[in-house]
Automatic annotation (TrEMBL):
<feature type="domain" description="Glycosyltransferase 2-like">
    <location>
        <begin position="209"/>
        <end position="276"/>
    </location>
</feature>
<dbReference type="Pfam" id="PF00535">
    <property type="entry name" value="Glycos_transf_2"/>
</dbReference>
<protein>
    <recommendedName>
        <fullName>Glycosyltransferase 2-like domain-containing protein</fullName>
    </recommendedName>
</protein>
<feature type="domain" description="Glycosyltransferase 2-like">
    <location>
        <begin position="53"/>
        <end position="164"/>
    </location>
</feature>
<dbReference type="InterPro" id="IPR001173">
    <property type="entry name" value="Glyco_trans_2-like"/>
</dbReference>
<dbReference type="InterPro" id="IPR029044">
    <property type="entry name" value="Nucleotide-diphossugar_trans"/>
</dbReference>
<dbReference type="Pfam" id="PF13632">
    <property type="entry name" value="Glyco_trans_2_3"/>
</dbReference>
Length: 362
């Protein structure tokens, strides 16, 4: 779903302990008017008894960190029992000096500050923060988010609604640069690759089950995090979130997007990540090859139909086309042979490509 850019809007947060002057954030903290959101109240079960730990890893980008924390402070539900854990992973832009001023501030009883002796990476840094968390629920937050009014309540409600099946809950994320939808979950596409879903139909249901969600903003019970062992540090700043969600699914738990929770994200455009991303993708596909094949069947069928129905001549049998259409529409549970064959070919092609471009491991 392509959305027109959000009209420029300015929000001034009241100055908090994170910064001295009021912080000015472009594009506002409310969902843009061209996204329809069901705004009915949420019933969060036993909310008064739930303690939430917000885990925020930091690596440079101090102005973004301060803006994000201002937005967090401005949007926390009244009376929420919580703690905020900031953990620096080797910043060299003044972030560490700023954190030391916060850690000595007696007016911030809910704030905890950790500083890594060296750069540990995203996975290990989150794991360290989670190891000291005291909340019943952990909320992982990137430091380049701008949180919106009532972003947390739908995530809490979604987790409560899933009950004993609750795995990991994500939300809808808009690109601050373009105003367009950047994330409504992670799916496996017809090429056996995890990709961001960017669909948000009008009046979308409150809860959408998905294979995975991004670690930029996710909610998970601390007990489940500990049971899963947190993020796998074999992943280098990417892929650990998908791996975590698939490990939760292996336990029979549901990962879902709370589609009434909408936030803004400075989507990463870091240079020099291509090889690292390929390594993470290779590790994911190696570990989860059967799951990738299963999760991509309907995408494969849709891709197959698009090719066949627009071709000058149909290259395969009408029966294959019919079976692919039924499966793509969700009317059959068993994938057709043509989907199985094409998925196997796609995975074989990817592994052959990785063999050529990735350094051999001794």
């Amino acid at each position: 779903m392509q959305l027109r850019p959000v009209p420029e809007k300015t929000l001034i947060f009241k100055a908090g302990p994170w910064s001295t002057p009021p912080r000015v954030i472009a594009r506002g903290s409310d969902p843009p008017p061209n996204i329809r959101v069901d705004s009915r109240p949420f019933a969060v079960q036993n909310s008064a008894r739930v303690r939430v730990s917000f885990l925020i890893p930091l690596y440079n980008c101090l102005p973004l960190t301060q803006a994000m924390l201002d937005s967090l402070q401005a949007t926390l539900p009244v009376g929420l029992d919580h703690e905020i854990i900031l953990i620096d992973d080797g910043s060299a832009d003044g972030t560490r000096d700023w954190l030391r001023t916060l850690s000595s501030d007696a007016t911030l009883p809910n704030l905890r500050v950790l500083i890594n002796d060296r750069n540990l990476g995203y996975a290990a840094t989150n794991n360290r923060a989670a190891s000291i968390a005291t909340g019943d629920l952990l909320v992982l937050l990137n430091n380049d988010l701008v949180l919106t009014s009532r972003w947390l309540e739908p995530m809490l409600a979604a987790h409560a609604a899933l009950g004993p099946r609750a795995g990991i809950v994500g939300n809808v994320q808009l690109s601050i640069r373009t105003g367009e939808i950047d994330h409504t979950g992670i799916v496996i596409n017809a090429k056996a690759k995890p990709v961001h879903d960017r669909e948000l139909p009008p009046f979308a249901p409150a809860l959408k089950p998905v294979p995975a969600v991004t670690g930029a903003c996710l909610l998970i019970a601390r007990e489940l995090w500990l049971r899963l062992g947190g993020f796998d540090t074999a992943f280098i700043n990417g892929g650990e979130d998908v791996d975590l969600c698939l490990r939760a699914a292996r336990l029979g738990l549901t990962t879902a997007v709370a589609q009434r929770s909408i936030i803004h994200h400075h989507v990463s455009s870091s240079p020099g990540r291509k090889l690292r991303d390929e390594q993470n993708s290779h590790l994911l596909a190696s570990r989860w090859r059967p799951e990738f094949a299963r999760l991509s069947h309907r995408a494969v069928c849709r891709d197959y139909l698009a090719r066949e129905l627009t071709a000058a001549t149909v290259a395969t049998s009408p029966l294959d086309v019919l079976q692919a259409g039924l499966h793509a529409a969700g009317l059959t549970s068993r994938p057709p042979v043509v989907a199985l064959r094409r998925m196997a070919d796609a995975l074989d092609n990817e592994f052959s490509r990785w063999d050529k471009i990735l350094p051999a491991r001794g």
